[in-house]
# Entry
Amino acid sequence: MRAVKIVGAVVLGIVLVVALAIGAVMMLGDPVIARFIERHGSGLLGREVRIGGAFHIGWGRPIRVSAEDVHVANAEWGSAPEMLALQRLELDIEPWPLLRFKYVVPRLALTGPKLLLEKSPDGTGNWNFFAAKAATPQKRTQFPDLHRFAVGGGVFTWHNQETNATTALSFAELQLEAPDTTSPIAIAAKGDFQRVP
# Structure
């Protein structure tokens, strides 16, 4: 459940920052929007957010955002420099609900994500972001209305520095689908747990 909340907080942060960028710099072009997202995403999380590759917004219905080589830095005490690295992110957002501050996301797809969640020896989680705590959804209805979430070639690692225990999940593919906020979530996955299929 904690991983779902963390993914929800990250998705909400991405959606909020993209929504603000759309209104402010629509006419200035993709590179300016990418820098805006890096700067404000870093400020929101209290960690460096970097887009190292191509970034593009397709203005239409839905608005299609793609970014390559995306990175979010880990906590200073973390066992690795990055908490999250993505080869590619693809995000669809319905434009009209944004006018009512509602976030309808028909599709979020991550290619090659590497997510490291860990606790420090004193029990602090690396997901405790600087300014994102207040924005973290508490109920499912507060999450962005995400219809489809897909992961290709992902790795999720949980590391507890208190016990030095590590759990690793790798996904050849993972799909979560929910047509609306009241429907059950359908999950399909193929991968390894602790290197066992």
The mean pLDDT is 84. The CA atoms of residues 38 and 49 lie 5 Å apart. Helices lie at 2-25, 30-45.
